[in-house]
Recover the amino acids of this structure.
């Protein structure tokens, strides 16, 4: 093949390449679909996964639905109801990302979307495959949207080969679903994997109830509340007693301004507070929600990234340490030391 000449890629090839940047793996598809459901004001979201999402991803919500006249746009690239201008992108409270998700997902899968708004009497069903809309038909439906993705990456064999085992992809999805459920206790989130219900949160707005449903039920009894505000940073959440520890730090889960993040800095601060009280190589469980002014963090604007950089790392570390020390005292965690004369 000669690579001497410049050719413009045909539309389908270009869209498959672009899709790869938004959806590399099934969990990224699930994230986009659930975030759309959240943006649509849903109070109930049910996610159904089969074979690590390779075979089937279903997301059913009771949100606003999509108006009939917008339906032929949903799978178009850069079609969004959430922003109009570049400035809006920085202002928006919605999770949506430039109207690229559905187009990208549709480019590499078979999609069926059923939707109905409160105003419409009947719903509509759109089917599409490999980026092409096949049919739009009227169907009976409840208000909300239900979207089904089958045979992800059927037309991009290289990407399909790159996927991990069903089990490993399912684990990524399960972690994501747990994080979504914790960061949205106000939404009833139900998660079904390979025909079995994994969890169902009540959607009553209480973090403790969400933790109880998502994780092993014994855990919640071993957590105490942590709440502190200083240096313009707010922290709320739960942390485990000295008696309840894990062999690794995977259950130190942190959200910054509502968004799940990975931060070694935060893990260090947690360990600093706990270290005097734990055995070597034991780790506490923490669920922390940190709120600070958005200018104080650099979050990579790409939605798939979870890395975060704080501008004032020292402040964050200090806040977490102080919050935990305060909670240890409040919940009688620190053993009393008696000195004999
Ligand atoms: P974005 O979320 O960035 O706008 P998407 O490609 O994810 O881009 O979605 C395109 C548009 O389709 C959204 O702006 C929204 O209007 C509509 N949409 C997608 N999913 C849903 C849903 N579950 N409920 C209501 N509207 C939806
Ligand atoms: Mg979106």
């Amino acid at each position: 093949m000669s690579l001497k000449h410049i050719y413009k890629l045909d539309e389908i090839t270009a869209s498959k390449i672009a899709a790869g940047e938004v959806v590399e793996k099934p969990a990224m598809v699930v994230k986009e679909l659930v975030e759309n459901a959240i943006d649509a004001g849903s109070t109930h979201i049910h996610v159904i996964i089969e074979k690590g999402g390779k075979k089937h991803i279903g997301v059913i919500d009771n949100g606003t639905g999509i108006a009939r006249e917008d339906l032929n746009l949903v799978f178009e690239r850069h079609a969004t109801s959430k922003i109009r201008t570049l400035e809006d992108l920085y202002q928006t409270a919605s999770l949506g990302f430039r109207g690229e998700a559905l187009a990208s997902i549709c480019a590499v899968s078979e999609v069926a979307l059923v939707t109905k708004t409160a105003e419409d009497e009947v719903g509509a069903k759109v089917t599409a495959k490999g980026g092409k809309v096949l049919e739009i038909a009227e169907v009976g439906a409840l208000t909300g949207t239900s979207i089904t993705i089958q045979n992800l990456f059927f037309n991009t064999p290289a990407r399909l080969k790159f996927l991990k085992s069903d089990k490993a992809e399912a684990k990524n999805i399960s972690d994501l679903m747990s994080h979504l459920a914790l960061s949205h206790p106000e939404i009833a989130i139900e998660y079904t994997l390979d025909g079995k219900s994994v969890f169902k949160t009540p959607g009553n707005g209480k973090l403790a109830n969400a933790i109880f449903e998502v994780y092993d039920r014994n855990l919640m009894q071993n957590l105490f509340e942590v709440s502190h505000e200083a240096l313009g940073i707010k922290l709320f959440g739960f942390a485990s007693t000295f008696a309840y520890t894990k062999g690794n730090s995977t259950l130190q889960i942190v959200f910054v301004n509502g968004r799940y993040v990975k931060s070694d800095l935060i893990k260090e601060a947690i360990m600093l507070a706990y270290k005097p009280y734990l055995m070597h190589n034991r780790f506490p469980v923490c669920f922390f929600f940190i709120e600070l002014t958005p200018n104080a963090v650099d979050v990579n604007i790409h939605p798939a990234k979870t890395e975060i950089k704080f501008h004032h790392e020292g402040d964050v570390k200090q806040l977490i340490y102080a919050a935990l020390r305060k909670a240890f005292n409040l919940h009688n965690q620190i053993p009393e030391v008696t000195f004999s004369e």
